[in-house]
Fold this protein.
Amino acid sequence: MHSFTYHGDDLYCEDVPLHVIASEIGTPFYLYSRKTLEDHFRVFDGAFERIPHLTCYSVKANSNLGVLKVFADLGAGVDVVSGGEIFRAVTAGISPQKIVYSGVGKSRQELEYALNTDILMFNVESSQELELLGAVAQSAGRKARIALRINPDIDPKTHPYISTGLKKNKFGIKIEEALQAYTRAVTTTHFEIAGVACHIGSQITEVSPFVDTLRRVKQFVQKLSTQGIRIEYLDLGGGLGITYEDEQPPHPSEYADAIIREMDGLPCTLILEPGRVIVGNAGILVTKVLYTKQTDEKKFVVVDAAMNDLVRPSLYEAYHDIQPVAKRQGPQVTADIVGPICETGDFIARQREVPEFVSGDCIAVMSAGAYGFSMSSNYNSRPRVPEVLVDNTRYFVVRRRESYEDLVRLETVPEEL
Ligand code: LLP
């Protein structure tokens, strides 16, 4: 279910033709459909309505304020991993009492900021972090609501860079150590034990790793309960995959049914941290063909977006579908779609059957709503591209294009130099 469809030969987002936006604001740009964002959130959240739960959208997937505001209006919570993400969430109107904070390297300053913001829960990832949080809470005269993120040692069967719940990964605390940490924390006055958390990875296309994880976490919660430690929130993390090419991930309702079945009898509120499944297919990157060139080996289509705008193909060899903004008749050719950056690793797509694009054609890079703009950079001193949100027949630039002045705004050249 997404809102990028052809009307005749022209690709639209909801009721706005993409070529209109391209000619009015130039390329490249990210484009998000408000309707799809809302539908995806509602479908996901609605799938859990039979049980007490809180859907905490994972801000790292797409942290634009306009996007966060859409979720804030739907009553969403969020999962954050930095002080900056807390700031964004609160600025967009997310209730602090619906913020959960994960991450292996929270600094003292970030812990203080989160504590003063009165967030729902810290997902603590090490004994040392717990110790520092205790000290911070004590000096602030506040209680920190905590969950320990346990490492369930489950293989999510996804790309190794985005697997997080295996023993060899840096995330979480092993179960035996977590038990000791809980028993210590329960006697400490500046902690309030709120939950148990985990997150096993991303772009997971099967239900079984989630069910296996939940089984382990459930056993752990029951063990804590026999020791008199009551857990209010069970945070299962995010990770549900989407279709980029031909993956067939479970529908959120199938995922929810399996989880709800496994939750049976557990007196906890379930927290979920979906990112990609909500925003991934709600956004695209629109880019323009600058040149085409034919070498002895292959055909290259050089576009105005690059790995600094969308790093996923370069970093994970990720697949993003390529669609023409205006369909054209004629033969298909096999080509690499590459950016202007001075690296061979700068590609958007390789060895693809595409229409015979010519200079000036616009191309839609599909499924780019998650980990697209949020992972972009200024490499090669390229100003970051605008983000646009479509709402029915209207569109709003929710982040303007950076200027050359923006590139150097924070830099100073000392007089002595
Ligand atoms: N919760 C925690 C603690 C996480 O670390 C993540 C993602 C999520 C939730 C959301 O996961 P999702 O539902 O989006 O799968 N940059 C990579 C993905 C990195 C995911 C990092 N953690 C990519 O472009 O594929």
In short: The CA atoms of residues 97 and 120 lie 5 Å apart. Residues 58, 60-61, 79, 102, 162, 199, 202-203, 237-240, 273-277, 312, 316, 370-371, 375 surround LLP (CB under 6 Å). The chain has a mean pLDDT of 96. The domain at 4-32+280-407 is CATH 2.40.37.10 (Lyase, Ornithine Decarboxylase; Chain A, domain 1).
